[in-house]
Amino acid sequence: MGDSNYSKAYIQTLIDELKTSKIYTDLQCAAQVEIAKPTLRLSELKKGVLNGLVNSGWDRKLRNAIYRFLQTHPKLQFPSPPPEHLKEPLVFLRKAQQAWEKRILKSLNSMCTDLNIPLARKRPEKEQKEWAQKWTELGIDGPDADFGWEACQGCAYLSQFRPVYAPKDFLEVIIGLQNPNYHGSDTPGFYHLWGIVQVPLKVKDIDELRLQYSDMSINQCQSGIDDAQDIPSELFEQERVKLGKKVINTNHGPLAQEFSKKGCPTSMRATLWCQILAVELDEIDILYYEQLKTNVLQHDLLVDSLLYKDVKLTATNDDQYFVFEDFLYQVLLPFSRDTYVLNHFDYNSASPPKSYIRGRLGMDEFAVNYPPNGVIPFHGFAMYVAPMCFLYKETITLYYVFREMYVRYFFRLHSISSHPQGIVGLSLLFESLLQTHESDLFFHLKSVGCQPLKVAFKWLVRAFSGYLSSDQVLLLWDRVLAYNSLEILAVLAVAIFSFRKTNLMKVQSYNAAEAVLADLTTLQVIPLIQLSLFSK
């Protein structure tokens, strides 16, 4: 009886979600068009309307809409009562996340005080016009250029800004996580780890991962290996592309996701990602982006300078991504104003930061989300966007694909939670796999003062963007989308340590170990993952 009631509630919740979406309004309009057709008989009204909607592709649109809701709303994904990690995260983890958020806000407010600038201000009309004219060249005319910034921000040059935090700061917080009610000896199934993450979360073992990623096994052909230039195309690539075209023509997200488990052909990746993420742009989406752009032109936020600083420190200094600097600003600045992003806090342990209208400090009725999307950028944030610049020539498409990637996956990489794909779970999975399958390597590194996670953590937080070559990042993200899981990041991190094991066993210090693992740009990720998971 309980399961039946839950299923009814589940279906009703899904219907309610659809009714509040734009696709519901579009469906009503399409139905009205069908009803107005003179060939439709009144006696066959229902059947005629349904057939008309199916013939015009609405069955596919609805399937994709439902698929998207299930992907972005974890509470809707389970026909039986949801698992514990979605009911109530471990209390001490939620408290740790809250303390971390306060620390970030304190850092942000300190920056305002030190530089004598506000969190937000309205741009003068002249400056708004200058911004509109320079919108596609913001990399040239940024905060250090002379069109309003210096005078309006108290001569606060970009060089004076500093990242609110970096991955190494976040790692210190995770290392310090301790459950006051937990004692390893009291809990069957858990043991005191050699690693530095001491949180009693259940993570998958190698057998579970092999089953999950079975389509990546060594005897399965893969995009990224078997379509290489030195391999005759008739052996794999031609058939793969032929099948890919059929998948794309169906325009069905789950089918595109299943196809991508063996990787996406380069020429089809952009389209397949859009289908998996249910990104189908229309005039409303274009107008929405233009409104976000207008918000950027009208108001200057402190986080704008943080985003500029981050792009300058990361993508602009990278030989692969510096050409996309303008693209990055055109995505990241509107993103900071996008209140749609707030929806991900419904299934996130984090909370959007609050600020107060001047003179109303502490009065809840005058509290506002700051920034409007609730996300304070950190050092490396721009690298979530950079690899996707290779896929999309149109800024608006790039924007919506990045937004979906963030609200589905990337937010988990910089918030504390008990979710198995959160950064705590991924860190624990990495340490667990490495000490189980490379125990001699793990013990050696630990004995010379190099905890492996201290090296790998930055890879995990940035989903390897900026560390691997761009084509390898895209192949890796193919699998993140295809398997709807970030756990492959931890698997790859372990694989890299295994691959460099011979040299790592010779090091005698943390710096030496870091040097061995400094350059990952020559690595081929798919063979490494296959060897790590499936070789004996």
Number of helices: 25
Please report the total strand number as a whole number: 4
Q: What structural category arises from helix and sheet content? A: mainly alpha
The overall pLDDT, averaged over residues, is 84
SSE order? HHHHHHEHHHHHHHHEHHEEHHHHHHHHH
User: Major beta sheet, specifics?
Assistant: 2 strands, antiparallel
Strand proportion: under 5%
**Helical amount among residues, as a percent range?**
40-55%
Q: List low-confidence stretches.
A: 75-89, 145-156, 185-192
Radius of gyration: 25 Å
Taking strands numbered 1, 2, ... along the chain, how are they ordered across the largest sheet? Answer: 1-2
Q: Give the termini distance in whole angstroms.
A: 47 Å
The backbone outline, from C-alpha atoms, is globular
Walk me through this protein's architecture.
The chain has 536 residues and is an all-alpha fold. Helices cover 52% and strands 2% of the residues. A two-stranded antiparallel sheet has the order 1-2.
Blueprint of the fold:
Blueprint: H1 2-19, H2 22-35, H3 45-55, H4 58-72, H5 84-87, H6 91-115, E1 120-122, H7 125-133, H8 149-152, H9 167-175, H10 206-212, H11 237-250, H12 253-259, H13 269-276, H14 283-298, E2 299-301, H15 302-313, H16 325-335, E3 354-356, E4 367-369, H17 395-408, H18 423-437, H19 439-447, H20 452-461, H21 470-483, H22 487-499, H23 501-504, H24 510-516, H25 525-534
Antiparallel strand pairs: 1-2, 3-4
